[in-house]
Amino acid sequence: MPALLTVSGATRRFGGVYALRDVDLDVAPGETHAVIGPNGAGKSTLFKLIGGQLVATAGTIAYDGERIDRLAPHRRARRGIAIAFQDSPVFRGMSVAENVMVGAHAITSAGPMSAILRLPRHRREETRIRGLAAQALDRAGLSPWADQPAESLPLGRQRALQVARALCGAPRLLLLDEPASGLRGPERSALAALIEQLRGEGLSILLVEHDVAFVARLADRVTVLDLGQVIASGPFAEIRTDSAVVAAYLGGPT
Amino acid sequence: MKWAYAVAAVGALVLPVVLAPGQLTVFILLGLSAMAVVGLSLLMGYAGQVSLGQAAFTALGAYTSGLLSLHHAPPLLALVAAPVAAALAAVVVGVPILRLRGHQLAFATLALQILLLSVLSGAQWAGGAVGLQGLPYLSVGGFELDQDLDYAYLVVGGVLLVSLIAHRLVHSRVGRGLRALATGEMAAEASGVPVGAYRLLVFAVSAAFAGLAGGIYCFFLGYLAPGSFPVLLSIEYVVMAVVGGLGSIAGALLGAALITVVVQLLTSLATQPGMPSYAPSVLSYAVYALLLIAVVLFVPKGIVPTLRRSL
Ligand SMILES: Nc1ncnc2c1ncn2[C@@H]1O[C@H](COP(=O)(O)OP(=O)(O)OP(=O)(O)O)[C@@H](O)[C@H]1O
Ligand SMILES: [Mg+2]
Fold it and tell me: Where does the ABC transporter domain start and stop, copy by copy (chain A) (predicted)?
């Protein structure tokens, strides 16, 4: 089966520093692919190249058989790529449910006129968006807080909120950048269970996570980045014994 | 908050009947400012952009209505053309500017207004510095609006229309996208929100509101001059929006009302015998500056959002 996402030769420089250098990576349909590596390895940079938040210095990104590296981020979202960022705050001044509803933007299209005139199309889509959001909130375990201001949630739940927002757009490729950071034991296993469930539904997932047990449980394949370069790639069982990986990451001070 | 809306509604309906003629004019001008400020508040609150030349769109709307009616266009058409022309101008200005970050829009709109004023002052077809005179009254279906009272209610209707449009826009898919991009542009865009297009949309909507106010102004006064739309008016709009609370429709209305009343009081003070002729404008600049500083220091979110929070 052809890959859903293919990153080839991705390079990103910040001034003189290479955050990412000649990175190849692909995600097969239905695969959960983890990206691990020490702090500053370039994991978030890679995600932002895929999402379009950063422009690559060199390299190409293909999704569903087409190059997407010149597309604006919102267009990539409409193709089915959703991201829960590591460092993005929730939307302030909006409820938890409204935050999640924003995620449905990618799969809806009612414009300003239908909103101002309250056309049937607006009503239909509002109903649909509410349904999608309720579902996403439920899956992320956030239903009890739906009507609270998003910024009042504790940080762990704000992370879960990002995941719910991404899910609300019914993506085909879900990028999760350290979704478990700041989560406590039970929340962490609930998130792992959710990711497992999503994988079972055939969703393709690209996951950055520092928790090795979390990665071992969930990932079909793991790509290890260090100093912006891929130093190993393969099933977890293979890369865990790789000497370069052990030296750079797994054997490190973590 | 419910009672506040009730008070405002009763006030808007009863005041035109009980106000003295001079006060009625103030009431109408207040309503026109409120229309422009509702739009500006959306722009500043949701697109994170300041327009320091928003009165340029009021002027554009007014001159569009004025010129069209002088050339015998049906008055209603001339009125409708005002917001359309203003919105089109906003799109033309906004497309190159809104791509940039920071405060380019503030400077671009300010430049636009200064440019527009100097073009209007020099252009013969626009009456030059004297402006357009002898403009007809607005008439709808044979009914001519020739009383101040008519315009007072027209303006109340205009404020309602503009508020309704803004409210419906904010509470919709597009509105959620707008609110999201105000505090989380990256995540909003990654959720499919076309950030640039939405910014342009709010800018155009805000210009249309200002343009509509200009159109009504043109029919109400019956004459137009570049001097009716000074940069001070744009600054007044900004102060009104900030004082009331950005992104709040009720705040925009309250801000407009509050500032208008304060400025009226000051003007009557400044035009006392013995005051120099420049007193009114110096005083209003000073008051805008003081109010802006006071709000930024003590109620940085503006009055209405702060009240909402503490209720
Ligand atoms: N906007 C930026 N400007 C300059 N340098 C940047 C920028 N973003 C990232 N970098 C640099 O690029 C490198 C990779 O950063 P990145 O955030 O991708 O790492 P990461 O693997 O996600 O790390 P972490 O595990 O801490 O999240 C780092 O050296 C970082 O300092
Ligand atoms: Mg990172």
Answer: 5-252
Give A86's contacts (C-beta < 8 A, 6+ positions apart).
A44, A47, A177, A178, A181, A208
**Which residues have C-beta atoms less than 6 Å from ligand 1?**
A 14, 19, 37, 39-45, 86
Chain B CA closest to residue A79? B192
Helices (H), chain A: 43-51, 73-79, 96-102, 112-116, 120-139, 155-168, 185-200, 212-218, 236-239, 243-245
Local confidence band at B65 (pLDDT 50, 70, 90 cut-offs): very high
Looking from the CA of residue A225, the nearest atom of ligand 1 is: 21
Q: Which domains are delineated in chain A? A: 1-80+172-254 (3.40.50.300), 92-171 (no CATH)
Angle, CA of B185, B190 and B196, to the nearest 5°:
55
Interchain proximity B180–A91, CB inside 8 Å: yes
B2-310 has which fold? ABC transporter involved in vitamin B12 uptake, BtuC (1.10.3470)
Number of C-beta neighbours around residue B23 at 10 A: 13
Residues 6+ apart with CB under 8 A from A122: A110, A114, A115, B172, B173
CB atoms closer than 10 angstroms to residue B152: 22
Domains in chain B: boundaries = 2-310
- Which residue has its alpha carbon closest to ligand 1 atom 3? A14
| Cα B189 to Cα B194: distance, rounded to the nearest angstrom | 6
* Residue nearest atom 25 in ligand 1 by C-alpha distance: A39
- How far apart are the CA of A157 and the centre of ligand 2, in A? 19
- Please report the ipTM that was assigned to this predicted complex: 0.91
Write down how long chain A is: 254
A25 to chain B, any CB pair closer than 8 A? The answer is: no
Q: Which of A7, A14, A209 to mutate to test the pocket of ligand 1 (most atoms within 8 A of CB)?
A: A14
Closest CA to B113 of B216, B8, B237: B237
Give tens-digit pLDDT for B242-287: 999 988 899 999 999 999 988 888 878 877 887 787 777 777 778 8
The pTM assigned to this predicted structure is: 0.90
Cα B200-B202-B205 angle, rounded to 5 deg: 110
Instruction: Return the H-helix or E-strand segment holding B167.
Output: helix B148-170
The structure tokens 């990104």 sit at: A61
Q: Hey, what amino acid is at B95?
A: V
**Counting ligands in written order, which one lies closest to the CA of residue A176?**
2
Of the candidates B66, B55, B51, the one whose C-alpha atom is nearest the C-alpha of residue B132 is B66
pLDDT of residue B100: 66
